Amino acid sequence: MAKARNVSLIEARLPEFGEPTVEPAIPTAVHEARVAGALARAKAEGLDALVVYGDREHTASMTYLSGYDPRFEEAILILVPGRQPTLLVGNEGIAYTTLANGRFEAIVFPALSLMGQPRDGMRPLATELRAAGLAPGMRIGSVGWKGFEADDIGFDSYWLEIPSYLADALRALSGPKGVVNANHLFMNPRDGLRAINEVEQLACFEFSSTFSSQGLRNVLFNVRPGMSELQAARLMAINALPGCAYPVLSGGERARVGLGSPTLRPLQRGEPFFMGYGLWGSMNARGGFLVEDERELPEEIRDYVPKLVAPYFRAVVAWYETIGIGVPGRALYDAVHTIIGDPFFGVKLNPGHLIHIDEWMHSPVKPVSETRFRSGMAVQMDIIPATGAEYFSSNLEDGVALADEPLRAAFAQLYPEAWRRIEERRKFMIETLGIALKPEVLPFSNIPAYLPPFILSPRRVMACQ
User: Is this prediction's pTM over 0.85?
Assistant: First the structure.
C-alpha cells in the first residue's frame, strides 16, 4: 500500500496537453474477434447462443460487439455459432446500421420503432428469432446492461433485466429455464470481455476523455459568479460525441446533490460548486467552492483545506500510487479508507471502478476483494466524499488505463499523438504534483489529478510536498 503523503496548496501551471486531431476507430476485424470470443466464452458455460438487447441508455455490450448503438429505438443482436450475427432494428435504425463497423445482417423489425410508425411487412418476433438461428431447446444467454450477483438477495441466474416481450419470446422458444442472465461474460471485473480492452478501444477512450476533461478545464479557468449555470455549462464546449452520463453543473444547495442539470440560476460567489462531463469511456468531475480563497468561506469552515481537501487529496494520491497491474481491489480500497474512512468524509461508494462505454461497468474495489487489476483495463479514479455538512465536498474524478510494456509499445506506435498527451500528463503528475505513478498507469485526462479547491483560483492546486 502506498504511504500517505504530505500535501499542500501550490501555484502550478497546467500544461496545454492539446486536443485530438486524429480520431481512432474500432476496425471490423476487432468486432469479428469480439463476436468469436463471446461465442467461445458462451460455449464454455454451456450456452448455445447469445441474445443482446440494447436501447439508447443501455448500449455498451451491443456496441462492443457490433459497432451499432441504438439512438432512440431498441435493437436486438442475435449470436449463434456458425452464422453471421443478426441485428434487428427499427424503421429509422436500418440506415444507421451502415455506419457500424461490425459484421451482421441488419433486419427491420418494426415493433422496435416508435409508436404510430408503419408496421409493414412485420413478422412475429418468434419468427425473426428462429430465422436468426435460435431453435427450441437451446440454452440462451441474455445480455442487456446489468448482471446480478450474490449480494443481490434472492438472485438466481434467471433474473433478466431485458424487456418482458423479449424475455417471454425467448422463454417460449427455449423453455422457462432455458434463458439465463449472461452479462457476467462481458462485465465481470476479473476477466469480463469488456473489462480487458484492446489498444484500439483504449485509444478511443483516450480520445473521448481528452474532450470531456478539456471541457471541465475550460470551466475551471473561465467560470465567474453571476453566470447562470447554463452559461457556465456552455464553457464545456459540449461537442455531441456519445455520452455515458448526463452533463451536470450546479451551484448552491443543488451542488450538494451532484446529479442536477444546469439551470438559469445565477452562480453566486461563496457557494458550493460541482460539475461533471462524461463521454464513452470517460467521466470527469470536479467540486469545491466558488471562492478565491478560504477568507470568502463562512468562518466556521475556513479550515476547509486542512480538514477536508488535504486528507481527500492524500487519499487520491494513495489511489494513484497504489493502482497497477496485479494489484488486488482490496489494496485500492484500503489505500483510500485508511486515510478518509472516518464517517465525516462520507465515502459510501467504491473508490474506483472499471469504465467502458457505460460509465460504471463493475468494480473490484471492495473490502477483502482479491480481484486483481490487469493490463488493458480502463479504471475510473472516483472517490466521492459527501460530508453532509457545511464543508460540502471536494471532488476529483478522472480515468486511467493500465498497460503492460507490449500494450504501451503498441499504443505508442499506433497512436503517437495520443501517446504524446499521455506522456506529458504523466510528467505533470510526477514532476509538478509529486505523484509517483507506476509505468503502466496511463492518465487520460487533460486535468490529471488537478484539484483546485477554490474554483476562482484555478492555478492554486493540491500537490505533494
Answer: yes
